[in-house]
Amino acid sequence: CFNSGSSCEKCDFETDLCKAFREFNLKPGWIRRNGQSGMGPPYSDHNGNNSAYFLSLSSDMRSSATLRTNVFLPSDKEHVCQITFHYWISQMSGTLTVGLQKHSEDSITNIWQVSGEPQNQWKANTITINSTENYEVIFQGMVETQRQDETVAIDDITFSEGC
């Protein structure tokens, strides 16, 4: 996945969601689509393929949507949990936040956030998580305006074997 020696889980959304996510509940507003869906940008996945699938906020969205992983076990020194993903944010009012929810805490701790990218294009990011207890990772997309071309999209989330 990252290198041939490591095993990891990859969610490319081509067929469905991978087993890192306990259920694909689209109610809050994520939709699995491709660039040909006629739903505005992005018009391709991060590889430039307009028939490949990714997740984006659905156009009838209520401004935000959450994607929550399964419970991950505590990370150890040899295997840190690395999550790599591609994201696309419309330039006006899109925000993508990645949060960490440890099992002893009710609240979600934000560990990464990006908003209002100047150009509409796919970018990649990797976050590293160290946790001494069980945890879940939460991706949250938000858009402040309801215009057709305002959206947040996610593609190709990979989880290293430490997750």
How are the secondary structure elements laid out?
Elements: E1 9-11, E2 30-34, E3 53-57, E4 64-68, E5 81-89, E6 94-102, E7 109-115, E8 122-129, E9 135-143, E10 152-159
Features:
mainly beta; Jelly Rolls; globular; 4-stranded antiparallel sheet; 163 residues
Description of the molecule:
This protein is mainly beta and 163 residues long. The protein has one domain (10-159): Jelly Rolls (Sandwich). Helices cover 0% and strands 42% of the residues. It is built from no helices and ten strands. It has strands at residues 9-11, 30-34, 53-57, 64-68, 81-89, 94-102, 109-115, 122-129, 135-143, 152-159. The strands form two sheets. Strands 1, 2, 3, 5, 8 and 10 form a six-stranded antiparallel beta sheet that branches. The protein has a four-stranded antiparallel beta sheet with strand order 4-9-6-7, with no helix packed on it. A hairpin with a 6-residue loop joins β6 (94-102) and β7 (109-115). The chain starts with 8 loop residues before the first strand and ends with a strand. The model has no long low-confidence stretch (mean pLDDT 84). InterPro entries: ConA-like_dom_sf, MAM_dom, MAM_domain-containing. Residues 9-163 form the MAM domain. It holds the Pfam family MAM. It comes from Bucorvus abyssinicus (Northern ground-hornbill). This is MALR1 protein.
